């Protein structure tokens, strides 16, 4: 039988730890601050940013927010980021993605100082990860590792397959698993025989962004399957994995919703505390 991995429970534990760290390591004047930058009026992005801001306040941290009009030029967004970069009350800066077309997201992300890059998406943060050095890690793959550790899944020596090579999830996920001594394959659209590759995986992380891509033909019996996909369908939220078709094939599986999603926000909170501690060391 397959055991569901409860992301909500693990995320709650991370958030409890963050609230404890905020209360014991900081004062009201020094408490970690997260700045969210929302460009434009995409409703889904507004909802995500709203839930991040509520969580920040709930955990006793400082909420800083900048709303930028959708027709803002690259230089205007850059100026907002530069101001937040200088602000000592801001420990971390999150530029909500996707940006309106015409803006160069990669260039804007790279204006964020590495010690404030709580999304872990800048080129410098990616380099620190590639070298397995101290730094802020992208929230979603960091959350996946927390889930695997919470479930007692052995990563060292495991065969891990990541489906998808996005900057946000797939690439950093592959590197984080390599850093933990898994044998890792990262697949993508040009992988000729995807089921043959994924069927080798003890740990299968699916971050393709393709609804229902993964079925029973992709899964090794006894595998741990992590579904990073999230899609709004007429039947409700669903992932990249056709969970109902897997039968008892997987040993463990994350649900959508209630799996990786809640972990992403929890790790953002944890990264904000880590950034505040990093700033203190730099001061
Ligand atoms: N700079 C940036 N950093 C991000 O980390 C980032 C972003 N931009 N843009 C959008 C994506 C998406 N994302 C999610 C976070 C939480 C849930 C989440 O909590 N999902 C719930 C369900 C929520 C619902 O009901 O819609 C769950 O899976 O249980 C999902 C998706 C972060 N992103």
From TrEMBL:
It catalyses: (6R)-5,10-methylene-5,6,7,8-tetrahydrofolate + NADP(+) = (6R)-5,10-methenyltetrahydrofolate + NADPH; (6R)-5,10-methenyltetrahydrofolate + H2O = (6R)-10-formyltetrahydrofolate + H(+). Residues 5-119 form the Tetrahydrofolate dehydrogenase/cyclohydrolase catalytic domain. NADP(+) binds at residues 164-166, 230. Transmembrane segments: none annotated. Pathway: One-carbon metabolism; tetrahydrofolate interconversion. Keywords: Amino-acid biosynthesis, Histidine biosynthesis, Hydrolase, Methionine biosynthesis, Multifunctional enzyme, NADP, One-carbon metabolism, Oxidoreductase, Purine biosynthesis. Pfam families: THF_DHG_CYH, THF_DHG_CYH_C. Gene3D superfamilies: Leucine Dehydrogenase, chain A, domain 1, NAD(P)-binding Rossmann-like Domain. Residues 138-277 form the Tetrahydrofolate dehydrogenase/cyclohydrolase NAD(P)-binding domain. It comes from the Bacteria. Its EC number is 1.5.1.5, 3.5.4.9. The keyword Cell inner membrane does not apply. Belongs to the tetrahydrofolate dehydrogenase/cyclohydrolase family. Catalyzes the oxidation of 5,10-methylenetetrahydrofolate to 5,10-methenyltetrahydrofolate and then the hydrolysis of 5,10-methenyltetrahydrofolate to 10-formyltetrahydrofolate. Homodimer. This is Bifunctional protein FolD.
């Amino acid at each position: 039988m397959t055991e569901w991995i409860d992301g909500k429970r693990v995320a709650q534990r991370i958030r409890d730890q963050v609230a404890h760290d905020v209360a014991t390591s900081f004062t009201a004047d020094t408490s970690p601050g997260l700045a969210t930058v929302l460009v434009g009026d995409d409703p889904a992005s507004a909802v995500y940013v709203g839930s991040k801001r509520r969580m920040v306040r709930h955990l006793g941290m400082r909420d800083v927010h900048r709303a930028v009009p959708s027709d803002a030029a690259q230089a205007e967004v850059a100026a907002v980021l530069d101001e937040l970069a200088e602000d000592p009350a801001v420990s971390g800066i999150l530029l909500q993605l996707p940006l309106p077309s015409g803006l160069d997201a990669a260039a804007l992300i790279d204006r964020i100082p590495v010690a404030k890059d709580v999304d872990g998406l800048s080129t410098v943060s990616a380099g620190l990860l590639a070298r397995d050095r101290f730094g802020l890690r992208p929230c979603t793959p960091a959350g996946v590792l927390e889930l695997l550790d919470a479930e007692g899944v052995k990563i060292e020596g495991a065969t891990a397959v990541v489906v998808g090579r996005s900057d946000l999830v797939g690439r950093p996920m592959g590197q984080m698993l390599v850093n933990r001594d898994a044998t890792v394959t990262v697949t993508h659209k040009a992988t000729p025989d995807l089921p043959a590759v994924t069927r080798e995986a003890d740990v299968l992380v699916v971050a393709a962004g393709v609804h229902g891509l993964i079925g029973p033909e992709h899964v090794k019996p006894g595998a741990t399957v992590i579904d990073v996909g999230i899609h709004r369908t007429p039947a409700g939220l669903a992932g990249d994995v056709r969970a109902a078709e897997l039968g008892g094939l997987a040993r463990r599986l994350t649900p959508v919703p209630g799996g990786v999603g809640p972990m992403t926000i929890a790790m953002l909170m944890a990264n904000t505390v880590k950034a505040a501690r990093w700033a203190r060391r730099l001061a």
